[in-house]
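Before relying on records like the one below, remember that each one covers exactly one chain. Contacts with other chains, cofactors or solvent are not represented anywhere in the record.
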Amino acid sequence: MKISFTLLILSLSLIANSQTYPNIEIKAAAFSEALVTADYQTAVDYFTPEVFAQVDANKLKEIWNQIQDQAGTYKSKAAVTVLKEGEIVASYQALTFENTVLDLKLAFDASESVAGILFLPHKIIELDLVDTDQIFEEEILVKTGKDVELRGILTLPKDATKVPAIILVHGSGPNDMDETYGPNKLFKDLAHGLAEKGIAVIRYTKRTREYTGPPAIDIASLTLYEETIEDAISAVDLAKKDKRIDKKQIYVLGHSLGGMAVPRIGTLSKNTKGIIIMAGNAKPMEDLIYEQYQYLVEEDGIVTPEEESLVVNYEGQLKALEELLQDGETDGILPLGLPAKYWEYLAEYNQVETAVNLKKPILILQGKRDYQVTTTDFQIWKKVLANRADCTFKIYEKLNHQMREGTGPSYPKEYNVKSDLPSYLITDIYEWINSQK
């Protein structure tokens, strides 16, 4: 089976990939990086022949200099957003200059080449807020320090008074607030389903989607703490200030890598009542990724030269990681291209041991068909926490990593099939929260 990094980084990397148009988001990010670093020849390589005939490298340099003459010196850029607009697919990326913020809009044709380029006044995309007979939503800002502001949504039951709340914590990658993948939106579905049962839910854009550089993110020193943990704690603190929420009933639910992170979030945040680990890995992340490679390579029983090369390259990255952790440095490429600080933090953080020492209720949810975080991880959690009366374990026969039903072995292609979040998953979370009162 032919595989690629974009499949494997679905829930386990920081590399920006669009959930619906991964190639376009990657190309848009690469184009803007070439533009702002004055690599104009690389930038124009993304143009269609028609656009290149009008805008070659010298012309693009002239345009970029004119933009900065008017807007001021370029400062930073946000993450890329990709939207379908009629017959075209367009990317938007906010560029911050000394005097203003502009949106870089790229229009892509069917061959995923840039067929148009525009600089527009920055437009904040309106959130799709729900208001029904049962629930309503409000836009919020999750703030961490002076440099990080993340747009989010608070979903509440109608006439909410001192209701429990859940903070949703993303898996890896630059996730949007809905944790969108293909046609499915796990966090949006969780928020609506839980609010209909009387539980408030906060979801927000992940820092690595909202920002791509300093001061909000320093890639060289980025760890799980800055990527995920710190902002989740800020969201908990925000929930505590809302008078409609019971400040003694605030929980954090982490999915995938977020599930790995929530034991530490629960430890560091004194305002959390308990944690929910949804498809969260108990094994080290580097081992998990290797298992994913092996699973996908062996899907059709045929190992192509490309697949063999991917596995060999990753094994080389594992050796570099081993060297880093033993010697404190390495000249090799680390897994997924993540910085040394990231891997050093993970080596120091033992999520299982942290969960054991956490004196708060824990709910662990696992799909039996999940190939990314498997039942082996679930059994590790269960083994170390089985003697705890305040720990509950739920495993679901039909669910995959995205908590969607299916039959037979799970593979990435099923993530692109629209399906409903099972009502029994929502019910189990609600009943567990209700039992903690």
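The longest strand covers residues 74-85.
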